[in-house]
Amino acid sequence: MRTADRAPAWRTRVTAAAVVVVLAALDLGLKAWAERGLTAGRTIELPVVGLRLAHNPGIAFSLADTLPTAVLLTGIGVIITGIAVLTWRATGPGSSMAWPPLAVILAGAIANFADRAGDGVVTDYLHTGWWPTFNLADTYITCGALALAVLALRPARTGASTGSETEYDAR
């Protein structure tokens, strides 16, 4: 493979890694702020979503909250590894459209994993009153998954210049 063929993949991979690092750091910073600045049981009402400190020992919607932390971390670590591999493959030569949502999902998963590794719980701080309290990493995972679903539902299109099909998959 020529250097010219590798350069775009290299740039895409660096960009994907930067997205993951910046988004995960933003969520972890907000979680640290929530731990210091919010009082448990008290909600700060804001126009769209309130702020309320909560701790989730399980995964989404407190599922598996009775499992030992080591079991959760191991399972989540395996899932993160799989998402990282998919992201790496999606950023390879001829990058697919799947890499941005995969990078966003990876950022959310890593941020929640890092938060849980410290004390066995995930810090949540966004509260709607009609939905379980959640955090920014949860929104990354949800929005990334929705974007992947949209990409999966889009029909393959014919490339204008080559006449070849372009697929929207994670390769």
UniProtKB/TrEMBL annotation:
<comment type="pathway">
    <text>Protein modification; lipoprotein biosynthesis (signal peptide cleavage).</text>
</comment>
<comment type="similarity">
    <text>Belongs to the peptidase A8 family.</text>
</comment>
<keyword id="KW-0812">Transmembrane</keyword>
<keyword id="KW-1133">Transmembrane helix</keyword>
<feature type="transmembrane region" description="Helical">
    <location>
        <begin position="98"/>
        <end position="114"/>
    </location>
</feature>
<dbReference type="GO" id="GO:0004190">
    <property type="term" value="F:aspartic-type endopeptidase activity"/>
</dbReference>
<dbReference type="GO" id="GO:0005886">
    <property type="term" value="C:plasma membrane"/>
</dbReference>
<protein>
    <recommendedName>
        <fullName>Lipoprotein signal peptidase</fullName>
        <ecNumber>3.4.23.36</ecNumber>
    </recommendedName>
</protein>
<dbReference type="Pfam" id="PF01252">
    <property type="entry name" value="Peptidase_A8"/>
</dbReference>
<feature type="transmembrane region" description="Helical">
    <location>
        <begin position="134"/>
        <end position="153"/>
    </location>
</feature>
<keyword id="KW-0064">Aspartyl protease</keyword>
<dbReference type="GO" id="GO:0006508">
    <property type="term" value="P:proteolysis"/>
</dbReference>
<keyword id="KW-0472">Membrane</keyword>
<keyword id="KW-1003">Cell membrane</keyword>
<dbReference type="InterPro" id="IPR001872">
    <property type="entry name" value="Peptidase_A8"/>
</dbReference>
<feature type="active site">
    <location>
        <position position="124"/>
    </location>
</feature>
<feature type="transmembrane region" description="Helical">
    <location>
        <begin position="58"/>
        <end position="86"/>
    </location>
</feature>
<feature type="active site">
    <location>
        <position position="138"/>
    </location>
</feature>
<keyword id="KW-0645">Protease</keyword>
<keyword id="KW-0378">Hydrolase</keyword>
<comment type="function">
    <text>This protein specifically catalyzes the removal of signal peptides from prolipoproteins.</text>
</comment>
